[in-house]
Design brief:
With 306 residues, this protein is an alpha/beta fold. It contains 11 helices and 16 strands.
C-alpha cells in the first residue's frame, strides 16, 4: 500500500510516499481502505523529531474509509461498513489503516468531513470531562478557533456552560456564530476577559499552548481549575493538569459529534484538502497557519467524489 513516511527529521521535504505491506487488524480492531485522513499538529511535530525518535516513521492518527477486515472479537462492525476513527499506530495516512476506535458514518456525512472529526472531538470531550465542565459554569478556552478549540466550544455549550474563547480577531465572527464570546489574544487579555466574564471564570482550557498558563491560573484562582492539551512543560512548571489520552479516551464523542455534523448542528470546518501525494504541502499549510480549518488528505477517488 502507499503510505506517508519519513526516514529523517526535518522540514516537509523529508516526507515521502512509499510502498509498505498492508497492515492487519488485531483483536478488537478493524482495517479500513482509507478514503480520507486528517492532518494534525502532531504529524509535523513527529516529523520535526519532537515526539518519537524511531526512524523511519509513518504518519496519521485519524481516517475515514470502508472496512475490509475485521479483527477477532469485533461484533459491532462488518466488512463494507463506512466508518471513521482513530489509529493507535500513527499510520493512518496510507492506503489502509487499522483503527482501534471507530464509529459508523451517518447518512449525509462524507469521508472528508468524517476524517476531520476523531482528534478534534475526542480531545475536546476528554478535556471537558477531565475539567468537570457542568451547566451554568463559565469556561475560558484559550485557542478557541481551531478544530479542537471550536469542538470544545460547541461541546461545552451543549453541556450548558457559558464559553469565552481567546483567538485572533479575524476568527471572532466565527466564534460568535458558534455561540462563544470572543476575546483577542495578546497583552491585556486577562483584563478583556474580566470585562466580559460577568461572575468570573470557573474553569480554563488551554488549546493553544502559547505560554499563558499563569494568566489562566490568575483568572480562575487555582491551578486545579486549569487544564492544557498543548503545553507539557508549562503544566509541569505551574502545577496545571495536562490532558493525556492514556488516562482514558472519550471515544463516545465520535458517534455523537458525527450525528450532529450530519444534522448540521455541529461544525468542524475543513480548511483545505490535498491528494496524498501533496502531504508536504499540507504540512506547510498547517505549520504556517495560513489555512483556517481542518487539513484533510484525500487518499482515493471515493473521497474526491463526496
Amino acid at each position: 500500500m502507499r503510505a506517508v513516511q519519513f526516514s529523517r527529521f526535518g522540514g516537509p521535504d523529508v516526507l515521502q510516499i512509499v510502498e509498505l505491506p498492508d497492515p492487519d487488524a488485531g483483536p478488537g480492531e478493524v482495517r479500513i481502505r482509507v478514503a480520507a485522513a486528517g492532518v494534525n499538529a502532531s504529524d509535523w511535530k513527529k516529523r520535526q523529531g519532537l515526539m518519537d525518535q524511531d526512524r523511519p516513521q509513518t504518519a496519521g492518527y485519524e481516517a475515514a474509509g470502508v472496512i475490509d477486515q475485521v479483527g477477532e472479537g469485533v461484533a459491532d462492525a462488518a466488512i463494507g461498513d463506512r466508518v471513521f476513527g482513530a489509529s493507535p499506530y500513527g499510520a493512518a495516512q496510507a492506503g489502509y489503516a487499522v483503527l482501534s476506535s471507530w464509529a459508523a458514518m451517518p447518512a449525509g456525512l462524507g469521508f472528508a468531513a468524517a476524517a476531520a472529526i476523531p482528534a478534534a472531538a475526542e480531545t475536546a470531550a476528554r478535556a471537558l470531562d477531565q475539567l468537570g465542565v457542568e451547566p451554568d459554569m463559565t469556561l475560558l478556552i484559550n485557542g478557541a478557533s481551531g478544530s479542537v478549540g471550536s469542538a470544545a466550544v460547541q461541546l461545552a455549550l451543549a453541556r450548558g456552560a457559558t464559553v469565552i474563547g481567546t483567538a485572533s480577531p479575524a476568527t471572532h465572527e466565527f466564534l460568535r456564530s458558534l455561540g462563544a464570546v470572543p476575546v483577542a489574544y495578546g497583552d491585556g487579555m486577562p483584563d478583556r476577559v474580566r470585562r466580559v466574564a460577568g461572575h468570573g471564570i470557573d474553569l480554563a482550557l488551554d488549546i493553544a499552548g502559547n505560554g499563558i498558563l499563569p494568566q489562566l491560573i490568575e483568572l480562575t484562582g487555582s491551578a486545579e481549575r486549569v487544564l492544557t492539551v498543548a503545553d507539557v512543560r508549562g503544566a509541569q512548571e505551574h502545577g496545571v493538569r495536562f490532558s493525556r489520552g492514556d488516562a482514558g479516551r472519550a471515544t463516545y464523542a465520535l458517534a455523537d459529534v458525527a450525528r450532529r455534523v450530519a444534522d448540521g448542528a455541529f461544525r468542524i470546518p475543513i480548511g483545505a484538502t490535498f491528494p496524498l501525494e501533496d502531504v508536504a504541502e499540507a504540512h506547510r499549510a498547517g505549520e504556517s497557519g495560513t489555512v483556517r480549518g481542518k487539513l484533510i488528505l484525500l487518499v482515493d477517488d471515493t473521497a474526491r467524489d463526496d
